[in-house]
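RECORD TYPE: inverse folding
INPUT: structure tokens
STRUCTURE:
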């Protein structure tokens, strides 16, 4: 065997080894596995935060709101959460309260208390695409999702700002039950947090809304935390920024705190007590 031929074999073997390693890195996870890791990410057993909500119109004018939220895992085995949101500011929405309860294998239960009406109103399935308190988030956007309700495809890997991400497309198995034709998510490899999500119109298939996360993900109480999220309606140009408030430069968010079960009841929803 000639020296030249032996060298050619070595080069061929090296190329095959590189291709094997590269192929493994590309196909080590699939779209489903990426979203499973998103779902399994530690978010604590209980959460409490003071949030700001900015409603930003196409010209850049801002209407600001202040919301306090509490969330707790009510069923550890099934991983089902309950969440209550209380609007503090401005006076036009003060004491509006929203309660959401995850249900195993079914849509979340949602109720809202409107002070002007003085009563609790249940959010029906037909209201899912309605705006949540004038924001660019709908009631359906607020709900949890079952992994098995979608088919996933890993479209590739992409650098998005400072993050390396997986790009995953999710298509609903029962399209008539979902408000979007499909979503495409950019999920960080480091934290398994979606930092960008594109949402496509159910009827036209056009890109309709886009949710983005600011690039300042940090750990609070040992848990990776998103501090600001923006949802933008690409048709109207209106957007909503939801962010953690600060006091003396510190974010007002805490995990694994003791929260009474009474806070997640219809009585609290009606009375705030």
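DESIGNED SEQUENCE:
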């Amino acid at each position: 065997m000639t020296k030249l031929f032996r060298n050619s074999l070595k080069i061929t073997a090296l190329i095959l080894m590189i291709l094997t390693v590269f192929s493994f890195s590309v196909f080590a996870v699939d779209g489903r596995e990426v979203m499973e890791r998103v779902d399994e990410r530690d978010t604590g057993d209980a959460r409490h935060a003071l949030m700001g909500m900015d409603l930003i119109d196409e010209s850049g004018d801002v209407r600001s709101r202040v919301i306090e939220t509490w969330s707790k895992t009510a069923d550890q085995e099934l991983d089902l959460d309950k969440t209550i949101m209380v609007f503090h500011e401005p006076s036009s929405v003060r004491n509006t309260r929203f309660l959401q309860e995850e249900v195993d294998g079914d849509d979340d239960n949602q109720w809202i208390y409107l002070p002007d009406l003085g009563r609790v109103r249940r959010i029906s399935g037909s209201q899912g695409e309605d705006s949540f308190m004038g924001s660019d988030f709908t009631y359906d956007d607020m709900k949890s999702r079952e992994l098995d309700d979608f088919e996933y495809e890993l479209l590739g890997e992409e650098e998005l700002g400072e993050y390396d991400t997986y790009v995953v497309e999710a298509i609903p198995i029962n399209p008539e039950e979902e408000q979007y034709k499909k979503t495409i998510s950019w999920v960080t490899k480091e934290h398994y947090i979606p930092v960008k999500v594109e949402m496509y119109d159910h009827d036209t298939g056009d890109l309709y809304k886009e949710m983005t996360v600011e690039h300042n993900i940090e750990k609070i109480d040992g848990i990776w935390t998103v501090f600001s999220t923006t949802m933008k309606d690409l048709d109207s140009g209106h957007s909503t920024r939801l962010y953690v408030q600060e006091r003396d430069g510190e974010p007002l968010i805490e995990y694994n705190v003791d929260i009474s079960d009474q806070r997640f009841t219809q009585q609290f929803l009606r009375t705030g007590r």
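NOTES: Residues 47 and 255 are 5 Å apart (CA to CA).
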